[in-house]
Amino acid sequence: MKALFNVLIVLLLVLIGYMLLMTVSEIPPYGEVDVPANNYVPQRYVEQGYEETGGHNLVANIIVAYRAYDTLVEITVLFVAVIAIFLCLKTGHPVEHKEDGCSQKTTL
């Protein structure tokens, strides 16, 4: 049974490795002129940013209107990570330290 489990683990790791290699092979080279992120997105922000958002500051318009969901998700992930760290560090169980034969109880 353990051998079958090990074979399944290896197959899963090979599949994940293959998927990662295929994903990385599809990424366009950095700084290539024909990449849509280098052509269409900034051009649309500059040309239609004021009309679509209605604000006067183009940088603030991009952050608030176009990138708001991305920023909200990033803040949520960071908040959940901090809460998880606090929960892991604060267990509330007393820990006994023995020094010179004396028992001291402290709470983490």
From TrEMBL:
Q: To which species is this protein native?
A: Dethiobacter alkaliphilus AHT 1
Q: Which UniProt keywords apply?
A: Membrane, Transmembrane, Transmembrane helix
Query: Can you tell me where the transmembrane regions are?
Result: 7-25, 71-89
Instruction: Report which superkingdom the organism of origin falls in.
Output: Bacteria
Stated name of the protein: MrpA C-terminal/MbhE domain-containing protein
The segment(s) forming the MrpA C-terminal/MbhE domain are 33-96
Protein's UniProt keywords contain Membrane: yes
